[in-house]
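Writing this down once: the sequence line spells out the residues, with the fold written below as integer tokens. I am pasting one below:
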Amino acid sequence: MLILIAAVVLALDLATKIAVVAWIKPGDPVELIGDVVTLRLVRNPGAAFSMATGMTWLLTVVAVCVVIGVIRIGRTLRSPWWALGLGLVLGGALGNLIDRFFRAPGPLQGHVVDFVSVGWWPVFNVADSSIVCGAILLVALSLFGFEPNGRRTHSKRDDAKSASAADK
């Protein structure tokens, strides 16, 4: 399931980036909902919100480490929710990593193609939104005690409820 989700995200990310580069000129946004939601071609050398723009090579190394880590964790997964979250993160990381390797100005320094602009929010792409959604899901799963192995951990609160019910 993880590989299937990652493959779908990667395919969507690559297809949309190829289309945007072919059809939208830099500085000539396409309005979808007035000027609030537009398609705007931006080549981002940095991370989210254009941070670390001078450290493109480091972002590439971090992305490679994320991909390796997700694949290693993925081999032990038993939870479909964790597979979904990690699949979203893996597909997004691979999508942006392909840009880093194969787009100008060159290997390990390529600029990521961003194109969705919503209000004041920084311009992003399918990979970015997939990574964010996957990360939010993984944090929520962790907070609610869902483990990658499919089990649910019990909190002290759950143990107190069980003890209270046993006393009755």
In short: The mean pLDDT is 88. DSSP finds five helices and three strands in the chain. Residues 80-102 form the longest helix (23 residues).
